[in-house]
Amino acid sequence: MYIVQIASECAPVIKAGGLGDVVYGLSRELEARGHSVEIILPKYNNMRYDHIWGLHDAYRDLWVPWYGDRIHCSVFCGWVHGRLCFFIEPHSEDFYFDRGTYYGCDDDPLRFAFFSKAALEFLLQSNKRPDVMHCHDWQTGLVPVMLYEMYQHHGMEHQRVLYSIHNFKHQGFAGSEILWATGLNREAYYFHYERLRDNFNPFSLNFMKGGIVYANHVNTVSPHHAWEAMYGDCGFGLGHTLHQKSFKFSGILNGVDYAIWNPEDDRYIPNAYGLSTFEDKALNKKALREKLLLRACDKPIVAFIGRLDDQKGVHLVHHAMYYALNRGAQFILLGSATDSKINDWFWHEKHHLNDHPDIHLELSFNEELAHLIYAGADMMIVPSKFEPCGLTQLISLRYGTVPIVRGVGGLVSTVFDWDYDSERSPEERTGFVFYDTDNYAVESALNRAIDLYYNEPKLFQQLALQGMQYDYSWKHSGEEYIKIYDYIRHK
Ligand code: ADP
After folding, report:
1. What is the Å distance from ligand 1's center to 256 Cα?
2. Cα separation of 413 and 58, whole Å?
3. Ligand 1 pocket check: which of 14, 21, 311, 362 to mutate, most ligand atoms within 8 Å of Cβ?
4. Which residues line ligand 1 (CB under 6 A)?
């Protein structure tokens, strides 16, 4: 099969969160199974160019219709750790992708509507006709809309779209200007409830809703979250649409790329270790402490890695920091915030705790440091309000770092409580799970974890080893994606 991924991220060259990991890891798995995969991305000025090999201009004169005029683009091509990627660069005064940031601009809907249009034009003009176009999140929600309303009439009638939703919270809203810009036009037609009109704001078009309505199949990134989005409040207003389209909606658990996340062969950690050499994990703990100037002692290290966003339960993260310190643990936080209030809050904490020998806050995005933390920490806390899949707990399991998670979304399906999981035998349990969103819930889970660490070190180690034995690679999920591609191709 010939598959083209159209996305706003691909790790490690463009990564803000799990979306980047998924686009890269899934593509690698598909290729390993003999499929042909290409990835279309925006050419941001702040992406990690050091991770691209052989970047060259592959298509110099791509003219993209925009607002009744045309924008001249160049398409660059290069390999990101073996994956063939095309980067679209518009030459216009809007500088859509020269903002020093991937997201967070006022005109994000226009930027990514343009990217979606340009990706389709690139496929059309360069005569690429993939069997499946796999689009991701709100940024590419308009791809299936434009494919079925415009491009299938220009020679792309056999292309099929799978639309994957990694986060329902961000849906992409715009007014009628988006219709005039992309050439979809026909306001009355698209502002219809059955098409792009937002379910709650009648004056707004919703990109993600468009993706759901027009794609051949839609999925989110865990079966449990698919259920939560349809029947709970995790669909952020799209529950009814998902219900209407439930015949083509499913959940597929994300995988982890074990070629990148593997403690036995990880170039960012000083000491490789595995199941049979687990004691060497302690050497990474030592290296982590030395790097972050934490004192050497016999305390456990509790870590948090993630976007500092309301979704991730920042209040609980904050509480966990101080509670862990009081309970005789060290704490390491690696995170960055786009919200200025959250950013200011954690910078204030960082200054306040600056010389503390048992805590380190690293307020940046740092892929290399993330590897060392997964390897060196004893526990990873993930107190999310909602979590479509969650990769941090899956990576932690691989590194023998015991996850302490809130029981929502993909976290429920991947972490099994040491004390209370009645559905699994003690040998199958992998971490600690709490359900409420108050401080007490975090405290009780942290207490159980820290007590086990101090009082029953052998059992704590056994728990870590049990987690390492699970296989959350792309093997299984890759197969599920291929089944869906096959299904929509032959429908
Ligand atoms: P989300 O997609 O909601 O951000 P996930 O748990 O699915 O959350 O994926 C997060 C990914 O981003 C993981 O690979 C994690 O290690 C990485 N990550 C998050 N924040 C940072 C950071 N500040 N520095 C390095 N890696 C980070």
Report:
1. 12
2. 43
3. 21
4. 17-19, 21, 305-307, 334-336, 365-367, 370, 389-392
Alpha-carbon dihedral angle through residues 81, 266, 299, 277, given to the nearest 10 degrees: 150
210 with 195: CB under 8 angstroms?
Answer: yes
Question: What is the rounded distance in angstroms from the CA atom of residue 135 to the CA atom of residue 137?
Answer: 7
Q: Which residues contact 361 (CB under 8 A, 6 or more apart)?
A: 333, 346, 349, 350, 353
Q: Chain centroid to CA 360: how far?
A: 24
Strand partners, 42: 88
Q: What is the residue with the minimal CA distance to atom 27 of ligand 1?
A: 306
Buried b (16+ CB within 10 A) or exposed e, 190-223: bbeeebbbbbeeeebbbbbbbbbbbbbbbbbbbe
Distance of CA 307 from the midpoint of ligand 1 (Å): 6
Q: How many CB atoms lie within 10 A of CB 105?
A: 13
- Domains of the chain are 2-255+475-489 (3.40.50.2000), 275-472 (3.40.50.2000)
For residues 331 and 297, the answer to whether their CB atoms sit within 8 Å is: no
Ligand 1 atom closest to the Cα of residue 367 is 25
Ordered per-residue pLDDT tens for the chain, 491 residues: 999 999 999 999 999 999 999 999 999 999 999 999 999 999 999 999 999 999 999 999 999 999 999 999 999 999 999 999 999 999 999 999 999 999 999 999 999 999 999 999 999 999 999 999 999 999 999 999 999 999 999 999 999 999 999 999 999 999 999 999 999 999 999 999 999 999 999 999 999 999 999 999 999 999 999 999 999 999 999 999 999 999 999 999 999 999 999 999 999 999 999 999 999 999 999 999 999 999 999 999 999 999 999 999 999 999 999 999 999 999 999 999 999 999 999 999 999 999 999 999 999 999 999 999 999 999 999 999 999 999 999 999 999 999 999 999 999 999 999 999 999 999 999 999 999 999 999 999 999 999 999 999 999 999 999 999 999 999 999 999 999 999 999 87
pTM of the model: 0.96
Distance CA 418, CA 412 (A): 13
Q: Which amino acid is at 454?
A: Y
Q: Which of 15, 222, 305, 406 to mutate to test the pocket of ligand 1 (most atoms within 8 A of CB)?
A: 305
The two structure tokens encoding residue 122: 């690139």
